[in-house]
Fold these 3 entries.
Entry 1:
Amino acid sequence: MSAARSVWTLWKKEMRSYAVSPLAYVFLGAFLFLSGLFFYLGVSLTGEASLRVLLANLAVTQLFVLPMLTMRHFAEERRQGTLELLMTAPVSLSSIVVGKWLASLSLCLLMLAGTFVFPVILAYYGDPDWGVMATSYLGLVGVSCGFSAAGLFASSLTDDQVAAGLLGIVILLPFWLVHQADALVPEAWVPSVQQFGVLQHLGSFQRGVLDSADVLYFVAFTFIFLFLTFRSLESRRWR
């Protein structure tokens, strides 16, 4: 079976699992509810025809939601004893990792698509800056890619779904809080340390700036955690 076909098959399998999972609908509903709340508060408190408040807070929401969406991928299969069967199937390990990651990312993009009604509302009542809005959504896509990969890595480390979800949040929190490094490291190190933070790079997208360094950050973030997931599963294969 070709790599592309293997990834496609695994993607369909995982999407079917999401479609019949009540937990996925719970997180989808919670995400959209919070999105509506952030949109209302942002518009009512600032009086701007802008999604600045909404999009900034959606990234925080993803920090907690995405590890919970990805926690079942490997943890559940390991608990049910089907992970070994999957790993001995005529499918490469990299295809398994990429297929599951793409399924998580697809669900996250569907959740983001559910917020497209808010730009429509703003366009009806005001004159939003579409360029800033587009780059802000692009930044959230980058966050979705990276956080999904990190959640998948956490799921590969344990057979307990809840532990995998919490571990995913713990892994991501340092990348979120590192912008406050000035309180922990010498002042001369602060600019370098902050470059590892998600907010440092997401902020450029939210200002309407599309910088190749910020794009590269999210690409590298995603690749590193997918690679760590691959290595984690590969190490189990030889135990």
Entry 2:
Amino acid sequence: MRRKDREMDRDFALAVADKCEWATVSVVTPEGEPYGVPVSVARDGDCLYFHTAQEGRKVDAFKADPRVWVVCVGDVERAEKAFTTGFESAMFEGECREVEDGDEKVRALRLLCEKYTPNNMSNFDAAVAGSLARTGVFKIRILSASGKAKVLKPHQRAD
């Protein structure tokens, strides 16, 4: 990392993944083309989970080469008196595989729903029962993690 003064540790990177609204997963397609797609992620230990259709360009890419690069952006603060931002971000190298075990699939979907729709959890079991067979769930095993942050200085903020 070029700016060592902004480098953050693995725990910081994992915390950014926990709070980010979405992440970008980048792959190389079977045709050798770069491809990035935004997904909603939930973390369990050293794994990131997301749901998707069971077929399509990204699924083909994961099956051809499970290596992925994931970028998460946490909080962003816009400066009022400078041309800059305060930010936090995390990057992960990982391997992506489809979750085939039914119990793990349900656990991953529960994590996602608890993060993104916590007020609707009373309907979770019925929703999963009706859609589990047609829902793809993928797991990214985190191989490496790095974080980065910049905090605005007081003179860059509003009065």
Entry 3:
Amino acid sequence: MNVSRSQVGIYDRQILTSKGESYFSSVDDYANQLLVRREGTAKLYHFRDEVLCIEIEKFNYDKLKLFFLGLLWRAHVTNHIFFRKVSLGPHEKVIRKMILESNPGYSEDYSVCLGIYRDAPTYGLPIIEPNRVRDGEVNHYKFSLGSFVALIKVDKRPFGEDWSDFLLNPDNPLRYTVLDDMKKEPLYRYIGDRLKGRESS
């Protein structure tokens, strides 16, 4: 996979040659249909009147997992300042090999957990700069991509039991944990305050 480093927008299409980009086109399209267009049929699990979990019975594990591995790897490769906190170290070679071989690995390999904001519209929420997070002893990267959040583990240790039902797994449905309102996030409030300030000036 040939890499050419550049800085073109948040999604940096110039980090790869056209041949390299072809590795991602199919999985990118699939993730867009499933996560952005929300074309899957979903079940909602409630506690009283509150939705706690969203479940999609059928999904393509290989494509979705490879999408997130590709997202993580491209965030590491680009020089764009938005992704400056993503640094994979020795994991880069392993993830790169998995992508080249179209190998999504097992659910424990660079595990992915998904959440969706309770107040998520189809569009209109900001994309927040990804950052490295430590959950107990486990390191992962948090990508807030508009209405949903992806936690991608970069650690040999497993996620805790609290996350086990929400790992991408070829033998289970796709499950989102439902998060608090995006509007409660500090960055969202900061952006709102800035916009209000511009309107009043």
